[in-house]
Write a structure and sequence with these properties.
The protein is an alpha+beta fold and 460 residues long. The protein folds into 3 domains: 2-118, Hypothetical protein af1432; 135-257, STY4665 C-terminal domain-like (Thrombin, subunit H); 275-458, no CATH class. 31% of the residues lie in helices and 16% in strands. It has 16 helices and 13 strands. A 5-stranded antiparallel beta sheet has the order 4-5-7-6-8. The protein has a 5-stranded antiparallel beta sheet with strand order 9-10-12-11-13, with no helix packed on it. Strands 2-1-3 form a 3-stranded antiparallel beta sheet. A hairpin with a 5-residue loop joins β1 (15-20) and β2 (26-29). α6 packs parallel to α7 and α15 crosses α16 (395-404). InterPro entries: TraI_2_C, Unchr_helicase_relaxase_TraI, WH-like_DNA-bd_sf, WH_DNA-bd_sf. Residues 2-213 form the Uncharacterised domain. It holds the Pfam family TraI_2_C. Residues 260-283, 326-335 have a biased composition (Basic and acidic residues).
């Protein structure tokens, strides 16, 4: 029943279901919350379209309101007789996979395989044989999915893309890396590890509009009070959303193409810092410690923060495009046990701390000791690991496997990312990361634990 009902809320909030008479004339929009479709007189057929600007994940929270139309009261009472089972069942329908236990994991795995099979990912041994769709079609479908689900946010500072007129502009490396990781996670094989290969495929089928002979556009993206020089790919909006009513709102700013500088190599995609990373990374925000004290102490006076970096400057922990393109996003090894990517990341973290190869409590540090435990700046620290261990999977995969270890502290609202205010001499900023409540998870026996960083304070 969890499998059958897990997307039940979509017709209520994500889709617009139009009812028709036998002669094809419309008899209105069906509201599932008002009752079954069969209660509407003269209804012989229906058509379905997706609502524009729908809220990501909202349908999961609506599902429980419709369950009684499908499942009889006797069945619900039987499930409720086992409170532990019932709690997992309800959490699964609501999309709360942190509380759904084994049942939620089964439904997630089955849902992923179902989507992969529908997309034609039949080369994977986990999926039943099916007609394999051409690569360009899978890439386009994957892009539509990521945009539809909000995995590639749009039209704001730090977004993955901007909709301007008839064009959708996407941050090149960020979008293609996310697309590759999504397709591999759903069981597709034969996905190129090179971004250039993916660009060529999209360009050949008219999905990507090139800049001359190159896929990459050098642009200036500007909004209210902010501006970034970014490398983007340009996609005609009709290739993503054929119906104008289904398109999101337009960007209230500008995307201005510019000629690449002479030092920029158009043959290869330049390393593009993740804007979200730039906002999360404490570089330039944390007060710098004195040179003689690489670890901040309680008497370390806060001094003037470093000047902000240019938007296109290399950020430590962001791997160059060549390193990202040369690795497969799926790991090689077991998904559980000591060879799991999450366990290997934790072991790497402990070794780096033991050898004092990682800064602690400094402006560029990925590790900060706070009153609540140890804060790992995310995703920067996972990108550091993936850059050094490219055969262990993408940083997204490593972070996901690490969260599976459940050694981190969740926030009261159930989310995983903690926010800390960074108090400088003249300004405040925010650093985000994963909180480990036990310092021994990083600083193993025999390693001196740094003092609490006095410049970081948890944001409630």
């Amino acid at each position: 029943m969890a499998a059958l009902l897990h997307d039940l809320g979509k017709p209520a909030v994500d889709q617009r279901v139009t009812l028709h008479r036998a002669d094809g004339q419309s008899v209105g929009i069906w509201d599932p919350l008002a009752g079954p479709m069969t209660d509407v007189p003269h209804c012989h057929a229906y058509t379905v379209t997706y609502r524009p600007r729908r809220r990501h994940g909202f349908h999961e929270r609506v599902t429980s309101l419709l369950v009684h139309h499908i499942m009889p009261a006797r069945g619900l009472c039987w499930l409720a007789s086992d409170q532990t089972l019932f709690a997992q069942w309800v959490a699964t329908l609501a999309g709360d996979m942190n509380e759904a236990g084994a049942l939620g994991e089964i439904i997630q795995e089955a849902d992923g395989l179902s989507v992969a099979r529908n997309l034609g990912a039949g080369d994977s041994p986990r999926v039943a044989p099916a007609r394999t769709r051409p690569l360009w079609e899978r890439l386009l479908t994957g892009l539509r999915y990521l945009l539809d689900q909000g995995e590639l946010p749009l039209n704001r500072n730090g977004a993955a893309g901007w909709l301007v007129g008839d064009d959708l502009w996407l941050v090149s490396k960020r979008a293609i890396d996310a697309l590759r990781a999504h397709l591999i996670a759903e069981g597709h094989s034969g996905i190129p590890s090179s971004n250039d290969r993916i660009y060529d495929t999209l360009q050949e089928h008219g999905i990507l509009e090139p800049y001359g002979e190159r896929a990459i556009w050098h642009t200036t993206v500007a909004g209210a009070g902010w501006s970034h020089e970014l490398t983007l790919i340009r996609i005609p909006v009709r290739r993503i959303w054929a119906e104008p009513d289904n398109r999101p709102g337009y960007f209230e700013g500008t995307v201005t193409p510019r000629a690449p500088e002479a030092r920029e190599d158009n043959a290869h995609e330049p390393t593009e810092p993740d804007q979200n990373d730039a906002q999360r990374d404490p570089v330039g925000d944390l007060p710098s410690p004195t040179p003689a004290a690489p670890i901040a102490t309680d008497n370390t006076p806060p001094i003037e923060p470093e000047a902000p970096r240019p938007d296109n400057e290399y950020v430590p922990g962001l791997e160059p495009a060549s390193a990202s393109d040369s690795r497969q996003d799926e790991p090689r090894g077991d998904d559980d046990g000591p060879t799991d990517a999450g366990s290997r990341f934790l072991q790497w973290l402990q070794r780096e701390a033991l050898a004092r190869r990682m800064d602690v409590n400094t402006p560029h540090a990925r590790i900060h000791v706070v009153e609540e435990g140890v804060l790992l700046v995310s995703p920067a620290v996972f990108k550091d690991y993936a850059s050094q261990n490219p055969d262990h999977g993408s940083w997204e995969y490593v972070q996901k496997r690490f969260m599976k270890l459940r050694v981190h502290q969740k926030r009261p609202d159930g989310t995983n990312v903690h926010r800390y205010l960074v108090k400088g001499a003249r300004r405040q900023s925010v650093v985000k990361g994963i909180l480990l409540p036990d310092t021994a998870m990083v600083f193993s026996e025999g390693v001196e634990v740094a003092l609490v960083n006095p410049h970081l304070q948890a944001s409630r």
